[in-house]
Amino acid sequence: MRVAVVGSGPAGFYAADALLKSEDPQVEVDLIDRLPTPWGLVRLGVAPDHENIKAVSRAFEKTAAKPGFRFFGNVEVGSTVSHDDLLEVYDAVVYTVGAQTDRRLGIPGEDLPGSWAATEFVAWYNGHPDFQDRRFDLSCERVVVVGNGNVAIDCARMLALTPDELGPTDTTPEATDAINEAGVREILMLGRRGPVQAAFTPPELKELGELAGADVIVDAADLELDPASAHALEEDRERARRNYELLQEFAAREPEGKERRIVLRFLASPLALVGEDRVEGVEIVRNELVEEDGRLVARPTGETEVVPAGLVLRSVGYKGVPLPGVPFDERSGTMPNDRGRVDGAERTYAAGWIKRGPSGVIGTNKKDATETVELLLEDARAGKLVCVDSTLSLEALLDERGVTYVAYDGWQAIDAAERAAGEPLGRPRVKLTGWEQLLATGRRS
Ligand SMILES: Cc1cc2nc3c(=O)[nH]c(=O)nc-3n(C[C@H](O)[C@H](O)[C@H](O)COP(=O)(O)OP(=O)(O)OC[C@H]3O[C@@H](n4cnc5c(N)ncnc54)[C@H](O)[C@@H]3O)c2cc1C
Ligand SMILES: NC(=O)c1ccc[n+]([C@@H]2O[C@H](COP(=O)([O-])OP(=O)(O)OC[C@H]3O[C@@H](n4cnc5c(N)ncnc54)[C@H](OP(=O)(O)O)[C@@H]3O)[C@@H](O)[C@H]2O)c1
């Protein structure tokens, strides 16, 4: 059997691995990515100072070394090749394309210069070739980060790292310089609900309290709980309880007067971003929690204030984008599916964030991809997956269209060049960040 897996992030690699393990039927996998480089958010999302997490790529390298695996970088499904092209060449297609855009706040001023989606900021400091032209003005005193998830924490922490902390990471040289030279003194994180409802996880919160160059500030009054939150805290002995204890510890701290401050505020939503030609401040409303359909949601109280800020990072979640010819549910930003079988689409499957939405850590995608592959193999054994013409190949199709793809050895050439550039600087790598550079290094000889 030949299967195309589209998207080479964690879900793509876990799906490829599960397929390659199958003995009945035996499967060959072509892993396709629009970028010349594999690993998805492991390379371009996970924070550069979390090198130990990026090390999961070693497991992906083992998958790539298995017989039957091929990588096709610089091949975008939906433009370079279509869904129908893939159905002609392959017995089945598994989409693992992740969530490529951001959720919107839907408030006035959201598109003022100086207001950015966290997705853009993250992609910029991580060296994504599509985001290197972004210019974040870090000369302002205060940055507001909207959202209370781990991505918001990543953004706040990255802005607060000292040159010594940033030095040994693979943050791009441009982003490293910009952060080192930034005038930012305060990073204000806004959570629309209370401390018990925060989406971030304890290890990530704890790290905020361990930064060399930033005090973490929490107002004890923000930690006073309404009865429903107090009850929820009793129920949740893991994440919420540990988060709450850490926040209490932060609130009890005397600030040390470090160069930057990370301030965590709760029950606060942006009503509007204000400013003449660019962001000059955020109008914030105080919220209260009310129960709605068994869930505690934020309701504005009417108590507002304007906080001056020169940069806003909106970190309220990622969102999937549709692929031409493949069913898509706008509301959830996913491919509608039943345990990975895409609804109403023959021989088409999904795994990872495009299957279940933009949440969960790297490991979550393993179970998720395995579930999808089990169903795919079940369908194969039931004789439901027969491709149209088994003599066609993706390479022939790409040759015909004059597309030069980056094969796995091309990626290895990019990888080696980046590591070599990083070595003398004590960095794991210096990423190639331009399309031209990446393609020139990775192109098949
Ligand atoms: C900023 C950030 C930091 C994170 N940090 C951590 C962390 O520290 N630890 C942790 O465990 N988890 C972390 N996560 C979560 C983790 O990254 C995700 O769970 C995981 O990456 C989702 O995997 P995926 O394969 O579904 O999507 P992705 O990793 O997004 O991979 C999707 C791939 O599909 C490709 N693609 C998209 N469209 C097309 C197309 N049309 N044609 C071809 N290819 C396409 C993309 O280029 C990409 O390579 C983080 C997430 C974010 C956003
Ligand atoms: N180190 C790590 O392990 C790591 C690092 C980064 C990311 N990740 C994972 O990647 C996934 C995605 O992370 P994420 O931070 O993008 O998403 P997330 O965990 O879903 O957090 C999104 C945050 O945005 C808030 N929000 C949503 N809409 C809002 C609005 N209109 N106004 C104000 N706030 C709003 C949410 O609040 P409500 O709860 O009120 O909706 C929530 O606090 C998560 O599973 C995360 O754990 C892990």
Description of the molecule:
The protein has 445 residues and is an alpha/beta fold. The protein has 2 domains: 2-100 and 320-405, NAD(P)-binding Rossmann-like Domain (Rossmann fold, 3-Layer(aba) Sandwich), CATH 3.40.50; 103-317, FAD/NAD(P)-binding domain. The protein contains 17 helices and 18 strands. The chain is globular and about 70 Å long. The model has no long low-confidence stretch (mean pLDDT 96). Bound molecules: flavin-adenine dinucleotide and NADP nicotinamide-adenine-dinucleotide phosphate. The site of NADP nicotinamide-adenine-dinucleotide phosphate has 23 residues, from α7.
Strand line-up in the sheet with most strands: 6-14-7-8-10-9
The CATH topology label of the largest domain is: FAD/NAD(P)-binding domain
Structural class, judged by helices and strands? Answer: alpha/beta
Bound molecules: flavin-adenine dinucleotide, NADP nicotinamide-adenine-dinucleotide phosphate
Instruction: Tell me the fraction of residues in β-strands, as a range.
Output: 15-25%
Biggest sheet, in brief?
A: 6 strands, parallel
Helix content: 25-40%
Would you tell me the overall average pLDDT?
96
Tally the helices: 17
Determine the CATH superfamily of the largest domain: FAD/NAD(P)-binding domain
Radius of gyration: 23 Å
Count of discrete structural domains? 2
Low-confidence stretches: none
Architecture per CATH nomenclature, i.e. the level-2 architecture of the largest domain = 3-Layer(bba) Sandwich
CATH class category name of the largest domain: Alpha Beta
Total DSSP E strands? 18
Task: Name the overall outline.
Answer: globular
